[in-house]
């Protein structure tokens, strides 16, 4: 996305390959302290490589397609991980999809947005973005989150906070339809709503016009390496999960907090890419990454688990708890107030980070 995103081999190419190789060697095996450290280093390298290659692709295809590539790629691999765990985990995974999706919503809409607003505010004072694009994204995220994660608490067809079969099918179709319409709007119908704007809020900012875009061969190579890097990120996060579980237990945190930690690791590529965009005064790109990731996480995960539920013997609990619903409500109100003016300050960023901190704290101390 800038003149400096052209591949600089060898590390952006080597890191994903090393990560996937290490994943193959360590998957399903117990790790000693040395291997845990090695996997952590490889995980960090894969995250940085994923961000690098995502920026190369974004420079080639332009916004908002570049943001969409990273968000969808991460989510597809994340969904595959969730489905694998659900099929092998039995009743212990009854709330896995709910907890993962909710964590993704809180991380993206509060954590990533908050950090990006603060980073952009430090550079330009009052970053500007397109309120129409950001507003439509928030509307879609909140609608799908409410339909999928709040309504199960109030339906009566099934006992407990879960959908009946037809209700789950409806939620899956609605989620997929809303996500598809969002992508169509973002990339075709109203693409200008999702492009970075100039400092005066009038017109589109094209910060790539001075830089030669990567060649088609470089873009295809980066796409392949991006997918490898994301496989390594998600897989190595799963490999590290026993060590994470041990650390969480040693700290006295509830077992559910492990899912939050893994979600944070999986979403690191979007977080770093979003902050880097914000530091270049591309706040709209940061919002595209954050809201696009939240949208894809729900829009793709709910249909996937609806299919997987056919093969599950145990319950599938989707309904949020009362504390989680309050956090979702607060996130909705604060997000709308943040994006309506089309500009924001570091104060709004701190508000979002406060909500994110509340989510993390309440996950530790429910």
TrEMBL record:
It is found in: Membrane. It is a multi-pass membrane protein. The chain crosses the membrane at residues 9-27, 33-53, 65-88, 100-121, 133-151, 163-184, 219-237, 243-268, 289-311, 317-340, 347-364. It comes from the Bacteria. Residues 33-187, 222-364 form the Sodium/calcium exchanger membrane region domain. InterPro entries: Alkaline_pH_Ca-Antiporter, NaCa_Exmemb, NCX_ion-bd_dom_sf. Its main location: membrane. Keywords: Membrane, Transmembrane, Transmembrane helix. The keyword Nucleus does not apply. One of its GO terms (cellular component) is plasma membrane. GO terms for molecular function: potassium:proton antiporter activity; sodium:proton antiporter activity. PANTHER family: SODIUM-POTASSIUM/PROTON ANTIPORTER CHAA, SODIUM-POTASSIUM_PROTON ANTIPORTER CHAA. This is Ionic transporter y4hA. It comes from Nocardioides iriomotensis.
């Amino acid at each position: 996305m800038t003149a400096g995103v052209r591949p600089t081999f060898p590390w952006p190419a080597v890191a994903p390959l090393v990560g996937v190789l290490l994943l193959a060697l360590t998957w399903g095996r117990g790790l000693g302290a040395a291997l845990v450290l090695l996997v952590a280093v490889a995980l960090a390298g894969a995250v940085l490589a994923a961000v690098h290659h995502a920026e190369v692709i974004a420079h080639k295809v332009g916004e908002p397609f570049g943001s969409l590539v990273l968000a969808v790629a991460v989510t597809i691999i994340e969904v595959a991980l969730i489905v694998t765990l659900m099929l092998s985990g039995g009743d212990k995974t009854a709330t896995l999809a709910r907890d993962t999706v909710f964590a993704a919503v809180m991380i993206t809409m509060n954590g990533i947005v908050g950090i990006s607003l603060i980073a952009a505010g430090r550079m330009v004072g009052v970053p500007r973005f397109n309120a129409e694009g950001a507003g439509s994204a928030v509307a879609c995220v909140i609608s799908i989150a409410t339909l999928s994660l709040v309504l199960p608490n109030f339906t009566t067809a099934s006992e407990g906070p879960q959908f009946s079969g037809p209700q789950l099918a409806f939620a899956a179709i609605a989620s997929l339809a809303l996500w598809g319409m969002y992508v169509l709007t973002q990339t075709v119908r109203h693409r200008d709503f999702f492009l970075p704007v100039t400092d005066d809020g009038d017109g589109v900012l094209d910060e790539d016009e001075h830089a030669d875009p990567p060649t088609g061969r470089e873009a295809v190579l980066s796409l392949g390496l991006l997918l490898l890097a994301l496989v390594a990120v998600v897989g190595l996060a799963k490999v590290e999960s026993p060590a994470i579980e041990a650390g969480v237990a040693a700290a006295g945190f509830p077992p559910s907090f492990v899912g939050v930690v893994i979600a944070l690791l999986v979403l690191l590529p979007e977080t770093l890419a979003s902050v880097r965009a914000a530091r270049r005064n591309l706040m709209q790109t940061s919002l595209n990454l954050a809201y696009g990731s939240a949208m894809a996480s729900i829009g793709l995960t709910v249909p996937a688990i609806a299919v997987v539920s056919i093969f599950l013997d145990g319950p599938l609990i989707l309904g949020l708890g009362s504390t989680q619903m309050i956090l979702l409500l607060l996130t909705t109100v604060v997000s709308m107030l943040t994006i309506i003016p089309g500009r924001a300050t570091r104060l709004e960023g701190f508000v979002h980070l406060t909500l994110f901190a509340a989510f993390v704290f309440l996950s530790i101390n429910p």
